[in-house]
């Protein structure tokens, strides 16, 4: 989640005429597409973007990966460097946690805590606290405004459907092949299939 958070925080900072280090926009829900919900209401304290502006920035963050994949030349290099910068920041926080020099908070895609949110999706991205042994504390979802709550409800339904689709495909694949090695190694062998259903029978 380091990359979408960096993009969302940078957008918010530009809109507010601030340096990116002074803003932080946590992202919750899923990791991409319609399931990704940037919480622009958390960018700076005591300030909330207009609904229209927040929707435009949310759309920009959700489609950024697709836009950068179509770039070439200098733009593509800039996109790669920005992603590397975001990942480097995350690695630094993890290193600080392992060395017990800091107790950083990051956004992680973790199992849903029923005491924090009743969700149809088993896993969800929210703020967690890192410690020397990994995730030390799961803070759950923060307080959100009404538009963000609506987006999150849609995101959770999207996550739930994708999870069901993945489980159905995995069950179909494993039950269709009696060879254990096929179940173990099929995912590591790149192949092209004309239809989605063909994936389940590719090794038979």
From TrEMBL:
Keywords: NAD, Oxidoreductase. It comes from the Eukaryota. Pfam families: Ldh_1_C. GO terms for molecular function: L-malate dehydrogenase (NAD+) activity. GO terms for biological process: tricarboxylic acid cycle. Residues 6-162 form the Lactate/malate dehydrogenase C-terminal domain. The keyword Calcium does not apply. The keyword Membrane does not apply. GO terms for cellular component: mitochondrion. Gene3D superfamilies: Lactate dehydrogenase/glycoside hydrolase, family 4, C-terminal. PANTHER family: MALATE AND LACTATE DEHYDROGENASE (PTHR11540), MALATE DEHYDROGENASE, MITOCHONDRIAL (PTHR11540:SF16). This is Lactate/malate dehydrogenase C-terminal domain-containing protein.
């Amino acid at each position: 989640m380091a990359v979408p958070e960096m993009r969302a925080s940078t957008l918010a900072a530009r809109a507010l005429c601030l340096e990116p280090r002074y803003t932080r926009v946590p992202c919750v829900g899923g990791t991409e597409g319609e399931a990704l919900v940037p919480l622009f209401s958390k960018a700076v304290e005591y300030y909330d973007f207009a609904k229209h502006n927040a929707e435009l920035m949310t759309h920009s963050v959700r489609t950024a990966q697709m836009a950068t994949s179509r770039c070439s030349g200098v733009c593509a290099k800039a996109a790669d460097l920005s992603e590397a910068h975001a990942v480097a920041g995350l690695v630094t926080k993890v290193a600080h946690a392992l060395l017990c020099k800091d107790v950083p908070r990051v956004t992680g895609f973790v199992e849903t805590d029923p005491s924090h949110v009743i969700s149809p999706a088993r896993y969800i991205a929210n703020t967690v606290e890192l410690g020397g042994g990994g995730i030390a504390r799961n803070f759950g979802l923060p307080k959100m405004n009404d538009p963000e709550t609506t987006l999150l409800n849609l995101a959770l339904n999207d996550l739930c459907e994708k999870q069901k689709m993945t489980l159905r495909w995995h069950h179909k694949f494993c039950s269709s092949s009696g060879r254990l090695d096929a179940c173990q190694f099929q995912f590591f062998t790149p192949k092209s299939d004309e239809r989605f259903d063909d994936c389940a029978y590719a090794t038979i």
